[in-house]
Each structure stands twice: as structure tokens, then as C-alpha cells.
Amino acid sequence: MESSTRFSSSLGRRSIFARIAAVIALVGAGVAIYLVVMSFTGEDSEKKSNDRKGQNEQTKKQSNSFDEPTYTVVGGDTLSGIAEKTGVPVAKLQRLNPDLDAETLNAGQVLNLQEPDA
After folding, report:
1. Which residues contact 90 (CB under 8 A, 6 or more apart)?
2. Residue 72: which residues within 8 A CB-CB, separation 6 or more?
3. Exposure check for the chain: N or C terminus, fewer CB within 10 A?
4. pLDDT tens-digit profile of 11-65?
């Protein structure tokens, strides 16, 4: 009888340790999942949205401060990009530059941004 009591008592101890280890493992897995989720949705998204706001404000400041009567096209420029940089709408750019072909902008090409003085 004594040997069966020892056997069941040692199984009980192993079982308790296994159960405690399982609980610790589950808690650890939960914490790991929480950290992974928060790394994708936490402060980074707030920083990115703040960075975007800062970029938009900076672009607005740049576009409002463009006072030149002409703009010289740089390689890689697009008509919409020029409109954004200068603050002049695309339709106005096309009206001020009737010979302008938006598909074939060439580096060095000069665009009027304002009505010519009469």
C-alpha cells in the first residue's frame, strides 16, 4: 500500500507543476500577442498620423510661399506635382500655358504661373 501512495503522491506533484507551467505559458503567450498587436497599432500609428499632419502643413506653407511668376520643370515633375508645389491649380496651369502637354513635360521647360502683365 505504501508504494501506491508514494506513486500517486509523486504524480500529484508532477501534475501540479505541469498545471502551473501551463498557466505561466498561457500568460506568456497572451502577453506576447498583446505586445505584437500593440506594436502595430500603438504609438507608431499616432506618430505617423502626426507626421502626416506635419507634412501636410509643411506642403501648405511651401505652396503658399511660392511667389515666382514662372516655374522651371525638373526631371520627374508631373503637372499635378507642380500644381501642388506652387499652389496653382492644374486647370490654371493649363490655361496659362496653352501649348503645354501634361504627358510630355521636359526638364528645363518654363511654365507661367501668373497672368502676364499687360
Report:
1. 79, 80, 83, 102
2. 108, 109, 110, 111
3. C
4. 666 788 889 999 999 999 999 999 989 888 865 555 565 566 565 555 554 444 5
Q: Dump the DSSP string for 53-107.
A: HHHHHHHHHHHHT---SEEE--TT--HHHHHHHH---HHHHHHH-TT--GGG--T
If you search the block for the grid coordinates 499632419, which residue do you land on?
Answer: 53
Q: Which residue carries 506635419 as its cell? A: 54
* Among 54, 53, 57, 62, CA closest to 81: 62
Distance CA 94, CA 103 (A): 12
Lookup: cell for 109: 521647360
* CA-wise closest residue to 80 among 70, 68, 92: 92
74 close to 47: Cβ distance less than 8 angstroms? no
> For residues 9 and 12, what is the distance between their CA atoms, to the nearest angstrom?
5
Cα separation, 106 vs 71, in Å, equals 12
